[in-house]
Records
---
Amino acid sequence: MKKLDRKQIAARLARDIPEGAYVNLGIGLPTLVADYLPKGREVILHSENGILGVGPKPAPGEEDEDLINAGKEPVTLLTGGCYFHHADSFGMIRGRHLDFAVLGAFQVSVAGDLANWHTGGADDIPAVGGAMDLAVGAKKVLVMMEHLTKKGESKIVERCSYPLTGARCVNRIYTDLAVIDVKADGLHVIETVEGLSFEELQRLTGVPLKRLASAA
Amino acid sequence: MIDKLFPSPEAALADMPNGATVMIGGFGNAGMPAALIDALIAHGARDLTIVNNNAGNGDTGLAALLKAKRVKKILCSFPRQADSWHFDSLYRSGELELELVPQGTLAERIRAAGAGVGAFYTPTAFGTKLAEGKETRRIGDRDYVLEFPIHADYALIKADRADRWGNLTYRKSARNFAPIMAMAAKCTVVQVRETVALGELDAEQVHTPGIFVKRMVRVAAPMKKVA
């Protein structure tokens, strides 16, 4: 089987973002998606700290401390982009104006519950940022993650053991092994990576999966 | 003649009492009013409640205020940073109380305070730990959590340009929390890069109307590169 690396997961997800979409890319892994949006396809990236039309990283020496993304990395503004304050920015999110939010995850449940902000450990410092707003606010929530933990346990679970970010909010999961839709009647496998059978994916995932006719 | 300009950051914060609730603008370093935070540290007010998106990073600004042990409680959405060591140690030792608020709820609670809204229902955090113990309500086909405004005694914010009436413009993503914090505090103090004569700001392009601003100090900060 040919597992996807992080960049390949980002590239696979980027293919599904259509022209004209307003998209928020969560900090960490999801930010990679920006690098794989096809050239010529106009997709408008939103950043929680008040930017629409986030552009690529500035050239060395061109950084501006007043122009950063939600991960606090220097960015640029595309021609046509604009700035606004935080209440408007989260009005865009909570008011269901964003077409997609792409988020990382510790776990996703069969029902589409998302856990991505806190391990719940006593010594772990909790930090939620905009994740809970994105989880309930975006029209579609796409999760991007490795299918298995380092210990080989499935991150797609019957019930999240980590504290929830949002309940029943995930629409689609992109992993290094498969693309899976979360629907009212369960998890539908859209595709698997080359050399991975549905049965093997089912064995690795643990929770019941449904097979689409087009899946390998 | 109205002139909201103060001679120094220290003068603008001279009446800060112990136990005040202070909003501090900025998202990371963008929009952080560093000169006002330094003046707050020098002032010595303690038992402060701080409202900011983060909980300081590195050894300067808000992190230095925490390190000086002037803060009893912080309301923020994202305290954990690679370099938030001062927050981390105070939080772990129990010397600093944390109220963790989802970022959009933080913004809306601040906005609600400034706009005179008594409380509001938001779908954010429903069914999570951060909504535990809060009143909820089903409206239509969605579940909501009741959230209350955050009022402040002071807001310390940074702007790019201002006139003597306190009309403000911001620069790029340094705007972030400043316009809503300016509305939510009894006394909003602005660190501004440049002051201009009345009429020089385009009235169509004023970001914060002067009614929300009480005091200003001019701090001509050179453009700094992001580390």
---
Amino acid sequence: MENSMIPVAVFFAAVFTNNILLTNYLGMCSFLSVSKDLKASYGLGIAVTFVMATTSAINWAVYTFLLEPFNLEYLRFIVFIMVIAAFVQLVEMVIERVSESLYAALGIFLPLITVNCAILGVSLFMVIRDYDLITSFFFGLGSGLGWFLAILSMAGILQKLKKARIPRGLEGPGITLIITGIMAMAFMGFSGILTIG
Amino acid sequence: MVTTLLISVTIVTSLAVFLALLMVIADATIANYGEVDISINDGSRQYTVRGGKPLLKTLGEQEIFIPSACGGRGSCGLCKVQVVKGGGSILPTELPWLSEEEQQDNIRLSCQFKVKESLEIKIPEELFLVKAFETKVAQIRDLTHDIKEVTLQLVDPPEISAKAGQFIQFQVPEYELTDEEVYRAYSLSSAPSDSTKVELEIRLVPNGICTTYVHKYLKEGDTVMINGPYGDFYLRESDREAICVAGGSGMAPIKSILLDMKDKGISRKTRYFFGARSAGDLFLIDEMRELEKTLPDFTFIPALSEPQPEDDWDGDTGLITDVLDRKLENIQEAEAYLCGSPGMIDACVKVLKDKGIPDERIFYDKFA
């Protein structure tokens, strides 16, 4: 593959074939709790996409220019978390100041995702897979959109299920997990189109 | 080896310091909303405060206490305030608590939105009567196996002016179950004429932050901070028959209302239905029978849903809703006062409405 095409391939792979939620099962906690509501899922999806894309780029820079030169790769877990937490907090403050409608739609979800494992996961995968800056950014963006796609489909399905009769023991997270599994199998249909990693 | 260690420590520390510095600067610049003016009730009160905090907290710092049972987590929906000017649009976290009319009147949850610009708000005048009180625990006694009666002697200020049926907020300090101060709401069970003390009935809820604190840790002589009084659950002035219904610690505000009727010489017809599971869950029966003698037209009707053989019960049995359904006839003109769990209240309101009492004459206090 041409080098210039790699970011594009990684982007699509992150959305479909290697969807972070459906193949790695990362970011499940907010996925399970928020997917009950379509509107909130939409806001959270946008917030996750934005934070994944930006933090993967920032963490790439921190990793390449700070950790690698001093052989401190083993500290990446704690450093990535710190950067993500501070960045999310900062973005929340800025959004709250700048635009009220954006804060209502996106800002209030930001504190929820500071500790979302999918976001840390993206930063760690990018290191393991040795991506460059552009690829990392597109990987983050793709993973975010993939997560967005997954939670939005789940919210849609749960909306329909509200009227369905579900065995009592399976109500709530139970049925959500089963549907997630079926969705993951459906997404396996995309495998082979693209590969990353 | 030592140098690598030093380098790694330095790098991580400087990164942390850099990020922390960034946050501090952001806090002082981006999140700094400067001084803003809050004007309450068409300018009858004016405050100049620092912006950036939720309205509930900002008002609390000015000693104006908006009732809130959850302590500002946006889960009880009590801290509603009408915002006339400023404050922006309603946030998604407020929507579940606001009806369409309330949204049109720009009623807001004061714990959710932050003060960022000058505001004009409306607060019911009686909230200005709300104060913070320092109290001492005068007495704790067991009413049943899981309900304790706590009597608090007011220290500073020494008197409270409450209406019978209203509630106060009890401050729980940091302890095993909570790492910050929390507030929980409890109804007064003492008569308003008894203005130097406050009596509460507190039922143990498994893992309840406040109830565990009261049941396991609170001792006579301890200092307790409370604030209040709050609430619009109180006896309305009229000659209509009053039908009171309560379960468990819902006894508290009804007892306060009955004592108040005695003090004020109110002689309206009153019936009080009290629901419990078995005889072990009944309490203050003697006090109620005493009131039957002193009040001119008062009947106390306790009912057990699951009387045990050893209870030797000859009173009413069945769920409180069934008892109401059986006993109440021609009550279209009556007023109803209910206190208890949300499930019990919803069920009883339905029965009372079927019997012809209109919504506006059914008053209730739900345990949130």
